[in-house]
Structures are given as C-alpha cells and as structure tokens.
Amino acid sequence: MGGRGFPASGKRTRARDNDVRETIKSDGKLGGFDLRDLDPDFLPIKPKSDWADPEVPEREEWHPATLRWWDRWRSSPQATRMVTDVDWDYLLDTALMHHVAWMSGGKNSERFAEIRIRLAAFGATYADRQRLKWEVDVPEEHSVGNKRGGNVTDIDDRRKRIAGE
User: Fold this and answer.
1) Does the model's pTM come out above 0.85?
2) Short-list 40, 29, 35, CA closest to 92
3) Would you say 71 and 65 are in contact if contact means Cβ atoms under 8 Å apart?
4) DSSP code of 45?
5) What does the alpha-carbon distance between residue 50 and residue 46 come to, in Å, rounded to a whole number?
6) By the 8 A CB rule, do 88 and 32 touch?
7) Is-contact 97 70, C-beta < 8 A?
8) Measuring CA to CA, which residue among 36, 29, 30, 32 is closest to residue 85?
9) How many angstroms separate the CA atoms of 55 and 114, rounded?
10) 3-state SS, residue 77
11) How large is the average pLDDT for residues 122-139?
12) Average per-residue pLDDT in the chain?
C-alpha cells in the first residue's frame, strides 16, 4: 500500500501559498473627490422629452444610490490604496456605470457584472480582499461582539447565561 509522501515541513515553497496578509486601515480622511462637485458634463443627457426647453439639452443628476455608494468608497479603508488620479478616474467610470444601471430601473442589469469585476480590483467584498491578500482593520466601534448596541452575542457570555452563572 502506497504512502502519502513525506510529512509537511510547515514551510511553503510557493510565494502564492504564503498566508501573509497586508492590513489596510482607514485614515479617517475622505479620498478622491465629491461627485457633486464634478462638471455636469460627466453625466448623460436626459431624454429630449424631459427637457424644459426643447432647444436646450439637460443633463441627469447623480442617482442617490450612486452618491451614497461613492461616499462609502471615499471613506473606506480601500480608499487609502487608491493613491493616484488614475485610480479615482477608473472608479469614476465605474460610478457612471453604476448611475446608468440605477437610472434604468434594472433594464441595464448587464452593467452590474462589469461593475462587480471592476470593484473586485479595489477589494469590494471579503472574497476580493482574500484574493488581494488584504485584511481590513475594523475600528472598535464597528467590531462584532457583545457590545452595547451590537446584535451579536459573544458565545461565552451566552453559555454563562444559560448555565446560570
């Protein structure tokens, strides 16, 4: 009967197998720029039937969901990794897709796949951050546990209450 080979040495030989994670932490500052301050020419033109004057084209306003989404990105720990104007321009292009998808009422849902792919590069989800080997340093006021106002109970506290301790 064959064996399983030599026992593991505990040391990985490939760099990709090393479980070294970079910790990213919010610096408390807003990154990038405010979408509300941008030139309105960035936004699409409204349908002609929505113009007040049929001769003067009107631009859309940012969808509220996009403004909220953008503000969250600006204050996120990932924003500390977006250090160049090119990074923020790429996110602005993504914001325009986000805006159009929301303005269409779901008719442009194919845009969400592209948005998801673009946001993966910035570590939008837990799985994306795992691939990037990033750990987010969570501030104490946002940590999970038996804190006042939190909705998660520490398992040890729960066991003590059940046991009557």
Assistant:
1) no
2) 35
3) no
4) B
5) 6
6) yes
7) no
8) 32
9) 35
10) helix
11) 85
12) 81
Rounded Cα gap, residues 23 and 137, in angstroms: 6
pLDDT above 70 coverage of the chain, percent:
80
Backbone φ and ψ of 43, nearest 5°: -90, 155
Q: In whole angstroms, what is the distance from residue 26 CA to residue 38 CA?
A: 24
Question: Residue 93: CB partners within 8 Å, gap ≥ 6?
Answer: 118
Structure tokens at 143: 């940590």
Q: Can you give the pLDDT at residue 109?
A: 76
The set of residues, in sequence order, having a beta carbon less than 8 Å from that of 30 and lying 6+ positions away, is 71, 74, 75, 79
The structure tokens listed for 87 are 């990074």
Phi, then psi, of 41 in degrees rounded to 5 = -65, -10
Distance CA 39, CA 52 (A): 20
